[in-house]
Structures are given as structure tokens and as C-alpha cells.
Design goal:
elongated, about 85% helix, mainly alpha
Length: about 100
């Protein structure tokens, strides 16, 4: 049986993966609608920011569920990198 903490950990990575997949799907649909190559749409901030947010939640959920220190460290590093990439993309798009 999963306790409350396990439920939160699992919910984090599941919701994060769902957000990332939704961002991917919407970006591909928009590229098709606008007649752009998918690669061009996938490099734009409207895709990168929600995708990185979803992947940060995914990585955080896996970091919290890891049993070995090095797994936790690796997922934590990925979490920080996704947050930084999303923030950089957001701020760069405002310039």
C-alpha cells in the first residue's frame, strides 16, 4: 500500500510527464496548423517553458522516489537543469 508521501512522489512524476507530453502534442499540432517544420516549433519558448516545467516535475518525482544517493543526485541535477532551461527560455523570449 502506498502512503501519502508515496502518492505525492508518484503524482509528481505522472503529472510532470503528462505536462511534457501535452506540450509536445500542442507544439506538433501548432506546427502542422501553421505549416512549419515541427523542429522549428519545438525550439520556441511556448513549447520549451511548459515542457521544461513538466520535465522538472517528472525529475523531482523520481528524485524523491530514488533509493540510492547517486540516483537522487542525478535526478536532482536534472530537475535543476530543467528549471534553469525553462527560466532562461522564458526570460530570453521577453527581450
Amino acid at each position: 500500500m502506498i502512503d501519502g508521501w508515496g502518492l505525492i512522489r508518484n503524482a509528481l512524476w505522472i503529472v510532470g510527464l503528462a505536462i511534457g507530453l501535452a506540450a509536445w502534442s500542442i507544439a506538433r499540432w501548432r506546427a502542422h496548423q501553421q505549416g512549419l517544420p515541427p523542429r522549428q516549433m519545438l525550439s520556441m519558448p511556448p513549447f520549451i517553458v511548459p515542457f521544461c516545467a513538466g520535465m522538472a516535475l517528472f525529475s523531482l518525482g523520481l528524485a524523491l522516489g530514488s533509493r540510492r544517493w547517486w540516483e537522487t543526485a542525478a535526478w536532482a541535477v536534472l530537475t535543476v537543469l530543467f528549471i534553469l532551461q525553462g527560466a532562461y527560455s522564458q526570460f530570453a523570449s521577453r527581450r
